[in-house]
Amino acid sequence: MRKIILNVAISLDGLIEGPNGEFDWCFTDNDYGMTDFLESIDAVLYGRKSYEVLMKMGPNPFANKQTFVVSKTLSGHADYTLLNGDVIEKVKEIRSSEGKNIWLFGGAELMTSLIEAQLVDELMLAVHPIILGKGKALFDELPGRLMTKLIASKTYPSGLVSTHYSINY
User: Fold this and answer.
1) pTM of the model
2) CA atoms within 13 Å, Cβ hemisphere of 107
């Protein structure tokens, strides 16, 4: 079975975006393991807001991956498979299909729903050495504790710490 892996940049204070939705604080000076990660996946799962933000930046940098967008308001498009209705069941079907792992790109609401349904297998958090103070918290909406087990971690000269956890439901 494929794994669903949340891979996201996060600040020291647990935020995934600044107060105006910005993520200009994310380091881009190094690969930080992304090439290896991208080789391990063949699909990307987005919430509508995350997908729209990424598309405003230019062409889809992950166009060579199967793209799924969860939305109640978007209509279908040639560039992605739209998931609406019973999203949890549809994600279960995708997860049980043949293929490599699936990148849960975001956002926080989709991540919360999938964790509540016990569909997220691993967390890969790129912890940036910055405190944003205000913004959107990654785990703000979780209903309770989530136990994890460290798989790996790597510290970079920039101060970024890449962490990789499995989730123990």
Assistant:
1) 0.94
2) 20
* Bridge partner residues of 19 (DSSP): none
pLDDT score at 143: 86
**Quick check: 126 and 153 in contact, CB under 8 A?**
no
CATH number at residue 31: 3.40.430.10
- Counts of helices then strands in the chain (DSSP H, E): 4, 10
User: Which CA distances in Å does 12 have to 7, 57, 73, 144, 147?
Assistant: 16, 25, 33, 20, 19
- Express each pLDDT in 50-65 by its tens digit: 988 888 888 888 989 9
Domains in the chain: how many in total? 1
| Domain that residue 82 falls in | 4-168
Helical pair 108-116 and 87-96, crossing angle rounded to 10 deg: 80
